[in-house]
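Researcher: Here's a chain I'd like modeled. Treat it as a single chain, no partners, no ligands.
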Amino acid sequence: MSDTFICAYALNGDGSGTGLTEEALRSAGAEGKPAWVHLSARSASARQWLAQDAELPDSTLVDALLAEDTRPRMLPREDGLLLILRGVNLNENAEPEDMVSIRIWIEANRFISVQLRDLRGVAEMQELLQSGTGPVDINDLMTTLIEGSIKRLAPVMGDLAEGIDELEDQILHMQLTGVREKVISIRRQTSVFNRFLGPQKDIVGRLNETDALRLNPKLKRRLQEAHNDMTRFVEDLQTIRERAHSIQNEVANILTERLNRNTYVFSIIASIFLPLSFLTGLLGINVLGIPGADDPRAFLIFCGILVAIMATQILIFRKLRWF
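Model: Modeled as a single isolated chain. Structure tokens:
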């Protein structure tokens, strides 16, 4: 296979798949069997194969399959179904919320998928076909891909929920170190996930209703379960986002309370030392007639007066319940 084709299989109908050569890809399948062809959008020959050899209905479909930036999308056509989905990014050194797309064109006997970046689901699908436990037809292939993306997404959603639980525990124990940065990170992740999972949930729900697919009752039930899982993920994201917002507000309230308390303490200290500073400043002026200037006991007496004034202030403040 060239760098254009990542893999190609004819579905044998029993969960296994037979690898196809590039020459066999010009037909809908091998020996009339449904075929799955997976291409790389980075290949310069991908557009030529889709437009000429694959004989797609028009250039609009080719542009949609090879677009640089995509959003979840479903477009039923008389001759097939265009489906663009997003999956969690599990590639090395990648952020899970940087979701990777898979672009799909579904016909009665052919399933063409295109990737721009590596997809874990493609490798897993190859393993299923090689082990004989994969999809038996085109609709089963589509449903299995959707279920696989949900399966890989579940641990990521669990990590987000666990992360927000840990932040709430830190707030309860008044441990604010690094909380604001973690909250911002979680809110960013939930925003990105929700941007793609919200529309994708609606698409999975609409797949059962489209006339472009002839789904048997079993596949319809599986898609209904997939839609239910996607709905739960979207609801969980909304809950996590609200909890993160509450934590952010609580951190701001705690910091504001600490600032107010420190300001209050400084105000009390300033109130205590303000008259003392006035007296020391008054007696420190360099003019004649300062009381006790010639008395060696004047300093000790003055210190005693200052202590007495301070003690009186403290008693007054405590009586007023200022502290």
